[in-house]
Specification:
alpha/beta, binds zinc ion, three-stranded mixed beta sheet, globular, Collagenase (Catalytic Domain), 14 helices, 8 strands, five-stranded mixed beta sheet, about 325 residues
């Protein structure tokens, strides 16, 4: 009888330990979850763009993926889509969600440096402002830098890097209080590394779909953060990463979810390597969302972007945009 009681007690202990482990362990991608993301077929991608026949011929050409936009590939085990379940957001779903749109009162995109920043670094924000203005075809302005007194936001030391990190969600709460009256959105830029409240050990940036504020960090864009060798073109590398993150985060502020249809600037990223593999441009699904919210002329947007890419020596992006423009002018 005592042996039976002991066996039951051991079994109960096993169950408790198993439940405890399940609660405590962070989610790890296994073969099952890897299989959950199916790269979308051509029909699924086309349906996500939705019917375009009622649009102008130029817009129809703009939103035709042709061979220019590769589909979202099957993720590797460390990639975003193997570790995060995302259903995607078609153009129609975006429209039905009635996202924030710029209007006559609120149509300026504001950028602001947060925390410690030097005069030189402030000067480097101007190219980002120009890129933002061209990418979204809306006026972009820099606000005076916002210093952060000690203790204003929670700071922790990251166990992997031993570097200080600020809580992104609290920075966003500060930004919400600073939203200018004519702002469509306000994006904070900081040189501090960031973390969020979830299981991620860092975030590049974070933005909300509804409150029109976001924050992103330059910290990990510089190879010096990881003590890696500094390439000769490090300034271009940091600029490219910064522009890509700006485009991504501000897209969220327009109510856009992560893109799962094509390789696109709005794809989620789990690492710097995955982020570096993303293009600067948006896919036709995301372009349609942006165009429907802002109402820009496709050719004017691409011509302006081309000028900025050339000026900033972002050569790959300039070549891509030249090709897009030639497609737009065809017919
Ligand atoms: Zn994102
Ligand atoms: Zn997209």
């Amino acid at each position: 009888m005592r042996r039976k009681a002991k066996a039951i007690a051991a079994l109960l202990l096993l169950v408790v330990v198993a439940v405890w482990l399940r609660v405590r362990l962070p989610p790890v991608a296994d073969d099952d979850s890897l299989l959950n993301f199916v790269p979308p077929s051509a029909d699924v991608r086309k349906a996500a763009i939705d019917e375009t026949s009622q649009l102008t011929p130029e817009l129809q050409r703009y939103l035709d993926p042709g061979d220019d936009f590769p589909p979202m590939p099957k993720p590797g085990p460390d990639d975003w889509l193997a570790n995060n379940h995302e259903g995607g957001q078609t153009f129609n779903e975006f429209r039905q969600a009635e996202p924030n749109r710029p209007d006559q009162q609120r149509r300026v995109l504001y950028l602001v440096a947060m925390g410690e920043i030097t005069e030189l670094q402030i000067a480097q924000l101007e190219p980002l402002r120009e890129f933002t203005e061209a990418y979204f075809t809306l006026e972009a302005k820099l606000l005076p830098p916002m210093p952060l007194a000690e203790g204003v936001v929670p700071i922790r030391v990251n166990p992997n890097t031993q570097k200080r990190q600020m809580l992104a969600t609290d920075l966003m709460r500060l930004l919400e209080q600073q939203l200018p009256d004519d702002a469509f959105c306000l994006l904070g830029i900081t040189l501090n590394d960031l973390y969020s409240g979830g299981h991620l050990n860092y975030v590049f940036g974070q933005a909300t779909l509804r409150t029109r504020v976001g924050v992103f960090s330059f910290a990990r864009f510089d190879p010096a953060f990881f003590n890696d060798p500094i390439p000769a073109d490090v300034d271009t590398l940091i600029l490219r990463r910064s522009c890509r993150t700006l485009a991504h985060e501000i897209s969220h502020m327009f109510g856009m979810h992560h893109c799962t249809f094509f390789t696109c600037v709005v794809n989620g990223s789990n690492s710097l390597a995955e982020s570096d593999s993303r293009p600067m441009h948006a896919c036709p699904v995301c372009l349609r969302k942006l165009q429907s919210s802002i109402g820009f002329n496709p050719r004017e947007r691409e011509e302006r972007l081309l000028g900025v890419y050339r000026q900033l020596h972002l050569d790959d992006e300039a070549h891509w945009t030249e090709r897009r423009l030639s497609r737009l002018k065809a017919d």
